[in-house]
Amino acid sequence: MGTLMTTAPIRKTSLYDNHIRAGARMVHFAGFEMPVQYTSVVDEHHAVRRACGLFDVSHMGELELCGEHAAEVVDYVITNNASSLVDGQALYTCACNEQGTILDDLIVYRSWFDHWLIVCNASNRNKMAAVFEQAAKGRCTFEDRSDEVSLVAVQGPKAFEVLALAGSDAGTLADLKAFHFRDAVVANVKCTVARTGYTGEDGVEIFCAWDDAPALWDQLLLLGTPLGMKPAGLGARDTLRLEARLSLYGNDIDETTNPFEAGLGWVVKMNKPRFVGKAALAQVANQVRGAPQARKLVGFEVTGRGIARHGYVLRDLDGHEVGVCTSGSPGPTVGKNIGLGYLPSGMTAIGTKFFVDCRGKNVEAEVVKTPFYVRKKLV
Amino acid sequence: MSDNIPVGLKYSTDHEWARVEGAHITIGVTAFAVEQLGDITLVSIDVKVGDELAKGKAFGTIESVKTLSDLLSPVSGKVVEINKALDTSPELVNDDCYGKAWMIVIESSDSSRAAKELLDDKAYAEHVKNST
Predict the structure, then answer these.
(1) Chain B nearest C-alpha distance from A285 (Å)
(2) Do B42 and A2 touch (CB under 8 A)?
(3) Any idea which of A154-168, A287-301, B96-110 has the lowest mean pLDDT?
(4) Are A41 and B64 within 8 A, CB to CB?
(5) Collapsing DSSP states into helix, strand and coil, what is residue A63?
(6) Partners of A337 in the β-ladder
C-alpha cells in the first residue's frame, strides 16, 4: 500500500474530547484537528439522510459587525442583497475581490438592523476578518468571535424530533422558516439556532458559547441516539454536501473562479448600486453569455469504473484535456460515483459524454442534472 | 480491528498480507490498512493473469469514500489468479480482508525466500504499533 495519512495536533475545538471519546479518527482541516469519521463515512451519511447527524463545525469563522452602518458595510462586501433581510433572517452569498473572483462563500445573519453575524469558512477566517475589518473602518465595529463561538449542526429528518426532547423552548424550533434564526435554550444551554445546513437535509445549526458546546453535544447525542442520531464527521459532511451540489470553498470555488461559472450567479445582485467586484462581474456576466470558451461547473456521473477526485483532468472523447474535476466521490445515497468539474460551455449539456482521467486511465463520465440528491419534502 | 493480524501469514511494511502455499502466494490488504482507509468503494486490479510483477510494484488501486491508495506487491512473480468478485463487491474488503477479499495470486520461483523477506505476525504487529 502507498503512504497512509498521519496526523499531528494543531488547534482543537471545545468538542475535541467528545470526539475522542466517540472513537473519532481526527485529521487536520483548516488548522484544526477535526473528526473525519467516527465509525464509517457511509454509515454516518445514511444516518443523516434517514434519521439525524450531529456535526461539530466549530472550526468555522464567526465575524460580527455592529453599528448603524453595519448593513451598508456588509452589503458592500458581499454579492447578494443584505438589505433584503429582516431581523432573524440569514442568506447565502459570495464575497468577491475587485477581479470578481470568489474570496469566500458565507452565510450572513441579520440579528437586528445594526447587528450582523457572518459565518465564513475556517480556511478563510483570517482573510475574511481582514476584508470585513477593512470595510468596517470608520463605519461600524468589527469583532472576530471565532474563538468564542462553537457551532454544532443537527441535520436530518429527525432533527426537530431530537430538538423537541431538548426542552420546551427547543421544542418549538420547527416553527423556524428556512434561513431564519432565533435565540433559544437547547438542553439548558443558551444558543442561537438557525435553520440552515450543509447536507441537503432539513435541520439546524446551533451557535453557543465555546465552553458550552461539550454539554450541548453530549445531551443532544443522549436524546438523539434512540432516534437513530449519530455523530457525523467531515467525511460524511463532504459526501452529503456533494450530493446536494453545495460548493466547497478550496475545491469547487476559489480566487480563480467567479460566481457565474460556478453556478452561483443567483447570489450576485447586479442591480445593487455598489459592491466589491461589481465592475469585473458585469464584464463576466456579458462574457458568459457571449464567449464560447467560457467554462461552467457541472455535475457528472462516472459511468465507467472509477471514482473522480479533486484535481483529476477531464478530457473530451478525443482525449484532449478540456477541464478539471473539483470534487468527486461515491454518493452513498444516489448510489453512483459523482463529481463536479469545470467544462467548456459547449460541453455542459445534460448527457454530454467525456472522460475523467483517473491516474492515467480514461474513464467514461456523463454530465447530469444537479443536485444529485433532492430531499423529499414531507408536508 | 487493527490487532487482527492472523498467525501464519506474512506481511509487508506497506500493509499487505501474503499467504504462502507452495509456489503460490495469495495477496491481500491487512485489517489495519482497511481500518485506515474506511469504507472501500472500489478495488481496481490493473494486472492480468500472466503478467510478471516485481516486488514493491503497484498492481492496482484501492479506493474508499475519501481516499485512494496503491496496492503494492509484497513479492515478485507471475500473476496466476485475480479475484474478480472485488469488481462488483469491493465491500468484501471491509467484511473479510483475509478471506473473501484476497486480491491476486502470484507464482514465485522461490516462494520460501520471498516469504523470508517479509514480516511475520509479531514483527508486523510491532510495525503497526509504530505506525499509529
Answers:
(1) 35
(2) no
(3) A287-301
(4) yes
(5) strand
(6) A330
Sheet holding B77-82: strands in order across?
Answer: B10-11, B16-21, B24-29, B104-107, B77-82, B52-53
At A365 the pLDDT is 98
Above 70 in pLDDT, residue A2?
no
Cell numbers placing B100: 473473501
User: Hey, are the CB atoms on A2 and B70 less than 8 Å from each other?
Assistant: yes
Tell me the nearest-neighbour CA distance from A263 into chain B, angstroms.
25
What pLDDT shows up at residue A8? 46
Q: What is the mean pLDDT of residues A13-42?
A: 96
Residue of chain A whose alpha carbon sits nearest to that of B27: A1
Contact B59, B53 (CB under 8 A): yes
At A295, list the grid cell: 467554462
- Determine the residue of chain B that is closest to A44 in CA distance: B39
Q: Please give the pLDDT value at position A371.
A: 97
Q: Which of B1, B66, B73, B127 to mutate to test the interface with A (most CBs of A within 10 A)?
A: B66
| Spatial separation of the C-alpha atoms in residues A80 and A267, rounded to whole Å | 5
CB A200 within 8 A of CB A331: no
Residues A262, A264: Cα–Cα separation, whole Å: 5
- Specify whether the CB–CB gap between A295 and A344 falls below 8 A: yes
Nearest to A1 among B29, B41, B42 (CB): B29
Output the DSSP codes for B66-115: S-EEEEE-SS-EEEEEE-THHHH-TTHHHH-TTTTT--EEEE-TTHHHHH
pTM score, whole prediction: 0.91
Burial B75-87 (b: 16+ CB within 10 A, else e): bbbbbeebbeebe
Burial class (CB in 10 A: 0-12, 13-18, 19+), B101: buried
Q: Are strands A229-231 and A52-56 parallel, antiparallel or unpaired?
A: parallel
What span, in angstroms and rounded, lies between the C-alpha atoms of A260 and B15? Answer: 46
Q: Mutual orientation of helices A70-77 and A125-136 as an angle, nearest 10°?
A: 130
DSSP state of A8: -
Q: Residue A359: its chain B contacts at CB < 8 A?
A: 61
- The full DSSP string for A249-280 is BTTTBSTT--TTTTT-GGG--TTSS--TTHHH
Which chain A residue's Cα is nearest to B29? A1
Q: Is the ipTM of this complex over 0.90?
A: no
- Chain B residues inside the 8 Å CB shell of A309: 68
